[in-house]
Amino acid sequence: MKLWLIATELARRPRRTLTGVISVALGVAIFLGLQAYGAGYRAAAREPLSLIGSDVVAQRQGDRPASFENVVFPHSTSPVHVEEVERVRAVPGVEAVAAAMFFWSFQDEELLVGLGIDTTTDVGPNKLAAGVTQGRFLTPGDHDVAVLDNSYAEQHKITLGDRISVAGSPFEVIGTVDTSRAGQVANANVYLPLADSQRLVEASPGVRSVHDIRPGDVNVLFVRANPARGPAVADDIKALLGSEAIVTTPQSFDQVLGPSFVIIDRFGLIIGFVALLLAAASLLRVVLSTLRQRRRDIAVLRAVGWTRSSLRAQLVGESVALTFVGLASGLLLSLITVWLLSQTSVSIPIPWELSPTPHFVANGAKQLAIDVPLRSTLELLSIGLVLAIGLLAAVTAGLAASRRAARIKPSEVWRVD
Amino acid sequence: MSTELLRATGLRKRFGGVVAVDSIDLHINEAEFVAIVGRSGSGKSTLLNLIAGLDLPDEGEIRFAGELLRANDEDALADWRAEHVGLVFQAFHLIPTLSALDNAAVPLLPRRSTEAARAAARERLDQVGLGNRVTHRPAQLSGGEQQRVAIARALVGNPKLLLADEPTGNLDTKTGKEILDLFARLRADTGTATVLITHDENVAAAADRRISIQDGKVLAEAGEGK
Question: So what family is this one in (chain A) (predicted)?
Answer without folding.
Answer: Belongs to the ABC-4 integral membrane protein family.
